[in-house]
Automatic annotation (TrEMBL):
It is a single-pass type I membrane protein. Its EC number is 2.7.11.1. GO terms for molecular function: protein serine/threonine kinase activity. Gene3D superfamilies: Ribonuclease Inhibitor. Residues 25-61 form the Leucine-rich repeat-containing N-terminal plant-type domain. The keyword Transmembrane applies. The keyword Phosphoprotein does not apply. Its main location: membrane. Residues 1-17 form the signal peptide. This is non-specific serine/threonine protein kinase. It comes from the Eukaryota. GO terms for cellular component: plasma membrane. Keywords: Cell membrane, Glycoprotein, Kinase, Leucine-rich repeat, Membrane, Receptor, Repeat, Serine/threonine-protein kinase, Signal, Transferase, Transmembrane, Transmembrane helix.
Length: 257
């Protein structure tokens, strides 16, 4: 009986240690909440003094640490209005951040873009409009873990910023914005893992860089509805993965409306 009681105590102790987020995580999330003018009802569960692992839209896991850590902030379609707090980028174990289909405005903080843990970032279908600080400080030599970046259907303008440091990025969705200038020629150099590149419905001009044919893993390219001119580079159809996917044809890469 005493052994059974000891086992139960240990199990309860373990469950308790993996169900509570840290004070730092709690504060970071509350800072995000404070930056919202409309919280979509989050305040009902996001309360000071309560465990943020039990809050709406928050998932914690002890897989990434011996203690529970916030791994997911999933708040799509919550009718949120306001700004994105830089504090979200300071959640040390955050893997997935989904704020899509809301009415968030302002900019996308560099702390979020330069997170050392986030692998999926989706802020699509908002009203974000400031220049994206996509690059970490060049002096750090940091290779970000980000694999999926969806910034489509916002109000981002000017030229598409540099993507230095995102060597693990697989999918970049930036369609339906106001990006202008030329499509960067160094995608393959900076993004060796890039497989999906979606840039349609912007204001890009010039031609499609032939260098995109050197993206060894590129299999989806969408650049329609821009101000591009010229022909589609032959290099694209010589690319390794395009040759392996027979459904891709020149017709699918026309960009004029």
């Amino acid at each position: 009986m005493s052994i059974l009681c000891l086992v139960l105590v240990l199990m309860l102790s373990s469950a308790s240690s993996t169900s509570c987020c840290t004070e730092r995580e709690n504060n970071c999330l509350l800072q995000f909440l404070a930056g919202l003018s409309q919280d979509g009802g989050l305040a009902a569960s996001w309360r000071l003094g309560t465990d943020c692992c039990s809050w709406e839209g928050i998932t914690c896991s002890s897989m990434v640490s011996k203690d529970a850590m916030v791994t997911d902030v999933l708040l799509a379609s919550k009718r949120l209005e306001g700004s994105i707090s830089p504090a979200l980028g300071r959640l040390p174990g955050l893997l997935r951040l989904n704020l899509s289909h809301n009415s968030l405005s302002g900019g996308l903080p560099s702390e979020v873009m330069s997170s050392g843990s986030i692998i999926i970032l989706d802020v699509s279908f908002n009203s974000l409009g400031r220049i994206l600080p996509l690059s970490p400080p060049l002096t750090t030599g940091l290779k970000l873990p980000l694999q999926v970046l969806n910034i489509s259907s916002n109000k981002f303008s000017t030229e598409l910023p540099s993507l230095d440091g995102m060597a693990h990025l697989i999918t970049l969705s930036a369609s339906n914005n106001r990006f202008s200038g030329h499509i960067p020629t160094n995608f393959c150099t900076n993004l060796p893992s890039l497989a999906v590149l979606e840039l349609s419905y912007n204001q890009f001009s010039g031609s499609i860089p032939p260098g995109l044919g050197n993206c060894s893993r590129l299999r989806v390219l969408k650049v329609g509805h821009n101000n591009l001119c010229g022909t589609i580079p032959d290099e694209l159809f010589n690319a390794e993965y395009f040759n392996r996917v027979p459904l891709f044809s020149k017709r699918q890469f026309t960009w004029n409306t």
